[in-house]
Amino acid sequence: MAALAAASLLLSAGCASEDGGPASSDGSPTPPAGSASSPAASSSPPAERPPAKGSVDVVSTLTEKLSSPWGLAPLPGGDLLVASRDDATITRIDGESGKKTEVGTVPGVSPAGEGGLLGLAVAPTYGADHLVYAYFTTESDNRIARLQYDESKPAGQQLGAPDTILRGIPKGFVHNGGRIAFGPDRMLYAGTGETGDTGLAQDEKSLAGKILRMTPDGEPVHGNPSADSVVYSWGHRNVQGLAWDKQKRLWASEFGQDTWDELNAIEPGKNYGWPEVEGEKGEAGYVDPVAQWKTSEASPSGIAYAQGSIWMAGLRGERLWRIPLSGTPGQEPSAAPQAFLEGKYGRLRTVVAAGGDTLWLVTGNTDGRGTPKQGDDRILLLKVR
After folding, report:
1. pLDDT > 90 fraction of the chain, expressed in percent and rounded
2. Where is this region: Disordered (predicted)?
3. Environment class of residue 247 by beta-carbon count within 10 Å: exposed (0-12), middle (13-18) or buried (19+)?
């Protein structure tokens, strides 16, 4: 009965899953030409953007046979931590050999639908405190906790008890957000979803459908729109990608519903429109995306910045998008987005900068929506330019 109820909920949500809704046969990306902070400036047709020119080479497959991988966090020294959404485990991957060592299980995780153990982040102070942060779904909510990673203990028993720094993020069968990352300001950011309850995205008192900014202890940060709130921006449907460019500008990927997936330039206190608008509308009071895609071409999850571009992993779209940046607000993107690896590795969940011209890319074919191939899921090392 539980499975039937879950399926019924998903069907009643229609296009509410992370894979977006049905798209027209015209699946070409459409980059709006206006400033992310000034929707009215978006007047040039997409055709004026020249095509991007770049390349992606798969250097190697670091590791294979991962189960529902979601969050990925590099450790000092080059190894990686990867979260299993459905198993609630964190595994360490040797950055050279790909050897897998289970670190431990995060207690209290309740995986269902798009919930479970999601984003991971390593504290900027990891060298001193060995703290790892996790975003996960419980029976009652989504929350963020920090856990101490003690490498001296036996494998599988190296995680300390979760110290919850933020609780009460609304949960749903869909749209739980889940990406967390430390910014250049050493503060912790989190992307949340509106759980399928669209009104929460416009409710500034709710933590759902938001980008949050907090101290490492989970407290509001000076400079947030409201001094007593961790809410940084709102009007989001389901944010699963966070990254900063070399100018320390925050970028976020967002799932659309029927029509447009988005890449947004995030500014504090701005409203990104959902559910009042989807994609580029040029309506006063809402921020237009910098680039948008038909949902069949993207359904974006993780993003990373490297070599002057945002790189965006597509789930339903099964491709890696490059969005070249000019560095000048109002002139983004500098060229039309360019797709790579289309259909070659299936669903792509997470992409993380590995330094210089390299990226780590995590596939997502064992999440219940993909068609796993032999070896799935895997982490790939890419060289990009």
Report:
1. 86
2. 15-55
3. exposed
Q: What are phi and psi of 296, to 5 degrees?
A: -70, -15
**Sequence-separated (6 or more) residues with CB below 8 Å from residue 35:** 41, 42, 329, 330, 332
Is the whole-model pTM more than 0.85? yes
Domain membership of residue 271 (yes or no) is: yes
Structure token digits, residue 6 = 């879950």
Among 259, 265, 291, 263, which Cα is nearest to 277's?
259
For residue 47, give the 3-state DSSP assignment. Answer: helix
> Does 8 map to a domain?
no
Q: Is 9 helix (H, G, I), strand (E, B) or coil?
A: helix
DSSP state of 206: S
Residue 15 maps to a domain: no
Task: Encode 99-118: b = buried (16+ Cβ within 10 Å), e = exposed.
Answer: eeebbbbbebbebebbbbbb
Question: What's the CATH code of the domain at 288?
Answer: 2.120.10.30
- The answer to whether 357 and 349 have CB atoms below 8 angstroms apart is no
Distance from C-alpha of 89 to C-alpha of 74, rounded to nearest angstrom: 16
Contact by Cβ (8 Å): 137, 108: no
When divided into structural domains, the chain yields a total of 1
250-254/260-266 β-pairing: antiparallel
| Residue 25 pLDDT greater than 80, yes or no | no
pLDDT digits (tens, 9 = 90+) for 44-103: 334 467 877 899 999 999 999 999 999 999 999 999 999 999 999 999 999 999 999 999
